[in-house]
């Protein structure tokens, strides 16, 4: 997997260098040529900050090497730069905290002064921070900001309307600063040359790898998580320590980490408690061709138009899109756990296969809308997950992962757990008189297509479906509709009282319901009664015998029959109203 990440970096021209990384600053301190602090302002949209692509960076090992307390350079927290932090109530802890931040603050200023020989504007920032009055002014400015900044927020400088961090003038100084000859030695050099796990080259292995950022929302640490870590003896072999157990040189480690961080930032999908990070063998010419984005937020197809994946597949097969023919996709699902990157899933293949799989996913989930007017919109992936639980946070990680794999493989069955949960939630919705969820009913339909090979299952009502359970569901829908036509809203009707029992043991309830139907037919107009009698007779003729009991799979067919029959009813009503309106318009036109 990491080999493919490095290959992607090479193809796209992504370069990385130890000691440099991408960072985001949330605040900028304004400094003028008189070494005065004139203000502080939020960057970017005020929430996420402004990203700088080439920032100085020390690893955690470099920050504490040789027992020296160091800070980062040019971008640091407000606690370090402005000594802005909330004192601890414990006096002992407060003193230690003050000493820690003061030491980092002084190192930060010292670095600015040393770098100012190459980047002169930094001398103004250093002088301002050394001036007690200017530092107090800065702290007051921070206190008066609304919303109030956090002590951990990152900050940089704007000196005379330019960002020193964007300058390249300090780069040479920074490279020398990181060399062991010019600073306290940051790490011990290995005397042994090893074979790189990723490139196969003979290299001098680095002890620790940089950290992957951006996983804090899925179990990761705010400070980052590592792909390769061997911090316990049980993880180590052959007398090797730390990351020499998976030997990689500093440049290669930096490259895969920087590339993966960029992919997380630009090409990842949040799967509740995991991130699906993806890329392609060749860059896509059109962002609309990104099928992973299509899974997250599918485009609404026009009337009688195929889904986007299907249209792209047809374009490839007819030679209209040769640029997509030899492309490949790569996708890895990751989360964080105790400072480590957990790889949950890894898939790769031809882009055409991805299109086929996602097209099949949307096709299998496709179902008529509740109102019967058109097909329901293609569901977002998280909408499919969400239809199984009352809150997305309650969705189990294994279930999400299984559904994700199913969406990416037309040959993978719908997870049985997802099917049973969908059936349970659909039953609750009916009993509670809630609008039935399209994604939920589509998932039940997809289960019968994929798992049971049901060739009779369609998006709309199928009066010819051979399942007695399906026909019993249709029958209950018609009987409930008949009761409403005869009696109006009577509170707990046929569905609320008998749905669960009828869907589990039709033979015990259908007879009683049919007897009641005779009374209901007597209370409606003759032409209405005739229409209901015909509808009931057609369904009864499709059932050779009422099942005594229905298992879960049969109960789901019952649910589909019930749902699609109701949708057909709404479609018939809309069609009759349209015909009636057209006839009225025609009559008015003739009279005029």
> Helix/strand/pairing class, anyone?
alpha+beta
Report the major sheet. 4 strands, mixed
Query: How many strand elements?
Result: 12
- Cα separation of the termini: 75 Å
Helix content: 40-55%
Q: What general outline do the C-alpha atoms trace? A: elongated
The number of distinct helices, counting runs of at least 4 residues, comes to 20
Arithmetic mean pLDDT: 90
Domains, number: 4
Please characterize this protein's 3D structure.
There is one protein chain. The chain is built from 20 helices and twelve strands. With 592 residues, the protein is of the alpha+beta class. The chain folds into four domains: 95 residues, no CATH class; 159 residues, no CATH class; 181 residues, no CATH class; 112 residues, no CATH class. A hairpin with a 6-residue loop joins β7 and β8. The radius of gyration is 33 Å and the shape is elongated.
How is this structure best summarized?
This protein is an alpha+beta fold and 592 residues long.
Key terms:
592 residues; alpha+beta; 4 domains; 46% helix
Q: What's the helix and strand layout?
A:
Elements: H1 2-12, E1 20-25, E2 27-31, E3 37-42, E4 50-56, H2 60-64, E5 76-77, H3 78-81, H4 91-115, H5 122-130, H6 132-143, E6 154-159, H7 171-177, E7 194-195, E8 202-203, H8 250-266, E9 268-270, E10 275-280, H9 291-296, H10 308-317, E11 328-337, E12 340-350, H11 351-365, H12 381-386, H13 397-407, H14 416-431, H15 438-450, H16 468-487, H17 494-504, H18 506-521, H19 526-541, H20 552-591
């Amino acid at each position: 997997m990491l080999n493919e990440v490095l290959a992607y970096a090479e193809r796209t021209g992504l370069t990385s260098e130890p000691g440099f990384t991408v960072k985001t600053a949330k605040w900028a301190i304004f400094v003028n040529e008189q070494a005065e602090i004139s203000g502080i302002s939020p960057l970017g949209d005020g929430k996420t900050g402004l990203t700088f692509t080439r920032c100085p960076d020390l690893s955690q090992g470099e920050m504490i090497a040789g027992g020296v307390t160091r800070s980062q350079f040019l971008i640091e927290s407000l606690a370090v730069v402005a000594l802005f932090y909330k004192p601890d109530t414990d006096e002992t802890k407060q003193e230690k905290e003050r000493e820690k931040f003061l030491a980092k603050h002084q190192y930060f200023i010292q670095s600015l002064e040393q770098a100012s020989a190459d980047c002169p504007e930094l001398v103004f920032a250093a002088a301002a921070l050394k001036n007690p009055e200017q530092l107090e002014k800065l702290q007051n400015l921070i206190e008066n900001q609304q919303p109030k900044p956090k002590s951990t927020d990152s900050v940089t400088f704007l000196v005379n309307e330019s960002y020193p961090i964007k300058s390249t003038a300090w780069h040479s100084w920074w490279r020398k600063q990181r060399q062991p000859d010019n600073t306290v030695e940051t790490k011990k050099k290995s005397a042994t040359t090893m074979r790189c796990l990723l490139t196969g080259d003979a290299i001098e292995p680095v002890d620790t790898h940089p950290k992957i950022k951006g996983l804090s929302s899925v179990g990761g640490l705010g400070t980052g998580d590592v792909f390769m870590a061997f911090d316990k003896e049980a993880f180590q072999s052959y007398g090797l320590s730390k990351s020499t157990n998976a030997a990689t040189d500093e440049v290669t480690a930096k490259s895969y980490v920087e590339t993966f961080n960029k992919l997380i930032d630009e090409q990842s999908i949040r799967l509740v408690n995991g991130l699906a990070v993806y890329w392609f063998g060749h860059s896509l010419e059109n962002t609309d061709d990104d099928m992973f984005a299509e899974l997250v937020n599918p485009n609404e197809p026009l009337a009688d138009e195929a889904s986007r994946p299907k249209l792209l597949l047809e374009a490839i097969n007819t030679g209209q899109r040769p640029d997509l023919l030899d492309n490949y996709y790569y996708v890895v699902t990751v989360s964080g756990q105790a400072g480590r990157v957990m790889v949950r899933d890894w898939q790769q293949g031809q882009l055409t296969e991805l299109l086929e799989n996602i097209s099949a996913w949307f096709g299998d989930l496709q179902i008529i809308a509740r109102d019967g007017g058109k097909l329901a919109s293609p569901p977002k992936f998280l909408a499919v997950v969400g239809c199984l639980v009352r809150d997305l946070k309650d969705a189990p990680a294994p279930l999400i992962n299984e559904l994700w794999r199913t969406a990416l493989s037309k040959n993978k069955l719908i997870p049985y757990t997802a099917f049973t949960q969908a059936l349970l939630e659909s039953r609750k919705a009916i009993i509670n008189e809630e609008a039935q969820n399209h994604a939920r009913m589509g998932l039940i339909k997809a289960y019968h297509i994929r798992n049971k090979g049901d060739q009779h299952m369609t998006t709309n009502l199928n009066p010819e479906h051979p399942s007695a359970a399906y026909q019993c569901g249709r029958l209950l829908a018609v009987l409930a509709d008949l009761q409403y036509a005869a009696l109006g809203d009577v509170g707990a009707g046929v569905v609320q009282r008998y749905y669960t029992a009828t869907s589990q043991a039709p033979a015990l309830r259908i007879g009683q319901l049919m007897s009641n139907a005779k009374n209901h037919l007597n209370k409606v107009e003759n032409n209405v009664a005739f229409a209901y009698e015909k509808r009931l007779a057609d369904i009864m003729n499709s059932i050779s015998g009422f099942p005594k009991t229905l298992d879960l799979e049969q109960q789901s067919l019952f649910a589909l029959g019930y749902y699609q029959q109701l949708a057909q009813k709404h479609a018939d009503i809309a069609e009759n109203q349209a015909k009636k309106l057209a006839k009225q318009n025609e009559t008015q036109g003739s009279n005029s």
